[in-house]
Amino acid sequence: MKSRREFLRTGTIAAAGSLALLSIRGNASAFMPIEESSVFSLPELGYDYKALEPHIDALTMQIHHDKHHKAYVDKLNDAIKANKLEGISLINLIKDVSKYPVAIRNNGGGHYNHSMFWKLMKPNGGGVPSGKLGEAIQASFESFENMKTKFNDAAKSRFGSGWAWVIKNAEGKLEITSTANQDNPLMDVAAVKGSPIIGLDVWEHAYYLKYQNLRADYINAWWNVINWEEATKNYMA
Ligand code: MN3
After folding, report:
1. pLDDT of 190
2. Rounded to the nearest whole angstrom, what is the distance from the C-alpha of residue 184 to the centroid of ligand 1?
3. What's the DSSP call for residue 121?
4. Do the domain assignments include residue 137?
5. Which of 78, 87, 237, 112 is nearest to 187 (CA)?
6. How many Å lie between the centroid of ligand 1 and the Cα of residue 142?
7. How far away, in angstroms, is 175 Cα from ligand 1 center?
8. How far is the CA of 121 from the centre of ligand 1 (A)?
9. What is the per-residue pLDDT for 95?
10. Cβ neighbours of residue 25 under 8 Å, at least 6 residues apart?
11. Which residues are found with C-beta within 5 Å of the ion, ligand 1?
12. How far does residue 105's CA lie from ligand 1's centre (Å)?
């Protein structure tokens, strides 16, 4: 079993050798964020590791996707097997997470959250949301700028590792929340529940190589790569 440190080191060395593969990986087909299967797999990123530069660097994307997300998938599959939970969909594992061992919460959440996160970013993203989502943001927050400020505050003030979210609550209104670790607002253990529309990973592994301790700079940069079409899909779903 490789230690986390060894994984990181191997990933760094491997990164130099795999630059030639970057463009090949970029042409991945779309994947389903919610798998209906008991053997879960790492989804393709859908764009090059370097596609989000300069806002998010290629090495961070590579390690984040190939090492961190893969580890959640592998450990989720191990936990499913060890606890004989085959045949339950990821969304149902997440929604009833308090019934299952903590490994399901951590790794099922990790798999769900990251699968969603990759799709919520794209090269040349950013700008201001329009259409139905734009209208919903106006209705719930009065302005996009107001929503952005509240979201940034939630992302900056989440202590330790976790996620900031825009969710659609039971009344159909948009709300800002944040969760610790790999928790998710769909989980029965979440303090504030709803359907995730936007999620931002604020674990240090998401930004430390480029931004070190400057989480706020990472958050500001991330708004340049947000994929509003994907967020709108989440809102309309
Ligand atoms: Mn992460």
Report:
1. 98
2. 13
3. B
4. yes
5. 112
6. 31
7. 22
8. 13
9. 96
10. 44, 45, 48, 49
11. 201, 203
12. 15
How far is 43 from 127, CA to CA, in rounded Å?
26
Domain CATH number, residue 143: 3.55.40.20
At 128, the amino acid letter reads V
N-terminal to C-terminal alpha carbon distance within the chain: 40
Domain that holds residue 207: 131-236
Quote the ligand 1 centre to 205 CA distance (angstroms): 6
Q: Is 208 among the domain residues?
A: yes
179 found inside a domain: yes
CA–centroid distance, 203 to ligand 1, in Å, is 6
| Residue 206 in tokens | 């998401």
> What's the CA-to-centroid distance between 201 and ligand 1, angstroms?
6
Please give the angle made by the CA atoms of 155, 64 and 184, to the nearest 5 degrees: 45
Determine, yes or no, domain membership for 205.
yes
Within a 10 A sphere around the Cβ of 193, how many other Cβ atoms? 17
Instruction: Please give the biggest Cα pair distance in the chain.
Output: 51
Domain count, the chain: 1
The Cα–Cα gap between 9 and 4 comes to 9
Q: Which amino acid, residue 136?
A: A
For each of the chain's 237 residues, which pLDDT tens digit applies? 344 444 333 333 333 333 333 333 333 333 445 555 568 999 999 999 999 999 999 999 999 999 999 999 999 999 999 999 999 999 999 999 999 999 999 999 999 999 999 999 999 999 999 999 999 999 999 999 999 999 999 999 999 999 999 999 999 999 999 999 999 999 999 999 999 999 999 999 999 999 999 999 999 999 999 999 999 999 999
